[in-house]
Amino acid sequence: MKKYIILVFILAIHSKHFSQDISAQELLNKSIAYHDPEGAWNTFSSKFLVTMQIPNKSNQESKIEINLPKEYFKLVTKRDSVSVTYTLDKGKCIISKNDSIRISKQKEKPKRSHCEMTKLYKDYYTYLYGLPMKLNDPGTIISEKVEHKTFKGKKYLAFKVNYDTKVGKDVWHFYFNPETYAMKVYQFFKTNEDGKVKPESGEYIMLSEEAIINNIKMPKIRAWYYNADDKYLGTDILN
To answer: Which pTM value belongs to this model?
Structure first.
């Protein structure tokens, strides 16, 4: 009888401990400790290769160089015989196509100059490969509530992130392994002009495997899908 009471007591303590609330900031700190245990992100300087696989298209190879202390970013993309280089060096941009330098103010897409495209790529790669550390950046508004969620059949700890309007309008959800605190999924939704979420908008990204770059555990494989219908969009593979 005494052993039974002790066992019940231990199980009760364990249950209480397991169900204890954890704040979003505490969860983020634990995830950062998992991915960047040496605090290397703030001085990140490295090169890596990403292969983009998109249905019905040939693969795109992207060579990426990020040097945060020197404010330097370089992206070299190659698909088939076309190679484009985007460089941002302390705010100065240089763009070349097949090694021929292009005029930076020439329009590549409507309303976007080459320099704007270069900054967009720099922000994109720095953000996604800097997660979860980038969630400590100014302008990031993290919901205090941590939720226990099941997503695509797996259980996660999750929280929501909004951004200051000067930073971005999308609403993000981040999902973490409840045991290791590794980031496993992120998901974003677009918003209306009044700030309300468009439920059928946006995408979710499933993360699997890991690669160690500059002592940081980064997701090796990122598979992209539409939120609306789970349509597969493509996969990024970090080499």
So the answer is: 0.85
The residue-averaged pLDDT of 125-138 equals 97
Distances (CA, A) of 98 to 14, 77, 93, 117, 182: 61, 10, 17, 17, 39
Burial of residue 216, with CB atoms counted within 10 A of its CB: 0-12 exposed, 13-18 middle, 19 or more buried: buried
In this structure, what token pair is assigned to residue 52? 């983009």
Out of 33-42, 68-77, 107-116, pick the least confident: 107-116
First-to-last C-alpha distance (Å) of the chain: 58
Whether the bond between 178 and the residue before it is cis, its omega within 30 degrees of 0, is: no
Residue 234 has pLDDT above 50, yes or no: yes
**50: part of which helix (H) or strand (E)?**
strand 45-53
CA-derived radius of gyration, the chain: 21
d(CA 36, CA 183): 12
- State how far the Cα of 117 lies from the Cα of 217, in Å rounded to an integer: 28
pLDDT of residue 111: 53
DSSP state, 182? -
Q: Are 62 and 76 in contact (CB under 8 A)?
A: yes
Residue in this structure with the two tokens 């190679």, named with its chain if needed: 83
- For the stretch 147-199, pLDDT in tens is 999 999 999 999 999 999 889 899 999 999 999 999 999 999 999 988 789 98
> Which residue matches tokens 């539409």?
226
What does the buried/exposed string (b/e) look like for 125-164 if buried means 16 or more CB atoms within 10 Å of the residue's CB? bbebbbbbbebeeeebebeeebeebeeeeeebbbbbbbee
pLDDT of 219 > 90? The answer is yes
